[in-house]
Design brief:
By secondary structure, the protein is α/β, with parallel strands linked by helices. It is 27% helix and 23% strand. The longest helix is centred in the middle third of the chain and has 11 residues. GO terms for molecular function: GTP binding; metal ion binding; molybdenum cofactor guanylyltransferase activity.
Length: 192
């Protein structure tokens, strides 16, 4: 079984006011935390899915940039693009690029559920909220993703509703889900 890591980094960060994936936390940009959590679990290749405007600002050793041909089409489009360009991996571990608190252990826990051939996606749940941008997707998701995009349905939920997936519950204390949506959010978390 082969597994790629995919960091989704093509968003507009409209609520943040600037590309938040480049914000620094403890001297590292947010996106680097996602890369590190994937690398420390020996995933390869590690792909940053982004666009032409953001690509020059990434400084990541041992990582491949996947440039989306159309900007801001959403995470399903990005995942589909990466899956089509990488025919080898069986699984794709997707992480958003704005998760400075994501942990190696969190990634490891989800990977453990890919040993079963029963599911086509493994998705974490915290406080009854599903998190499709911190999840694993099997290659078999490519065809349904393609179908949804042709119908102009760009929701990750649409993809999940068309495949058999496993949800894994995490406690409310799990820090990996902390998403920074505004500079004031970031200031608050830096004080904690």
């Amino acid at each position: 079984m082969t597994m790629a890591g995919v960091v989704l980094a093509g968003g507009q960060s409209s609520r943040y006011g600037k590309p938040k994936m480049f914000e620094l936390y403890n001297g590292k940009p947010f996106y680097q935390y996602s890369i590190d959590a994937l690398k420390e679990n020996n995933l390869a290749p590690i792909i940053i899915s982004t666009n032409d405007m953001l690509a020059p600002y990434f400084d990541a050793i041992g990582v491949t940039l996947s440039i989306e041909k159309e900007c801001h089409r959403g995470p399903l489009f990005a995942l589909h693009h990466v899956m089509k360009s990488l025919p080898e991996p069986d699984w794709f571990f997707v992480l958003s690029s704005d998760l400075p608190f994501v942990t190696t252990d969190f990634v490891k826990q989800l990977i453990a559920y890919t040993k079963s051939n029963e599911y086509k996606a493994v998705v974490p749940v915290q406080n009854e909220k599903i998190h499709p941008l911190l999840a694993l997707y099997h290659r078999d998701c490519l065809q349904p993703a393609d179908h949804h995009l042709k119908q102009d349905r760009r929701s990750m939920t649409a993809l999940l509703n068309s495949v058999k997936y496993k949800t894994i519950s995490f406690s409310i204390e799990e820090p990996s889900f902390i998403n920074i949506n505004s500079p004031s959010d970031f200031e608050e978390f830096k004080r904690v």
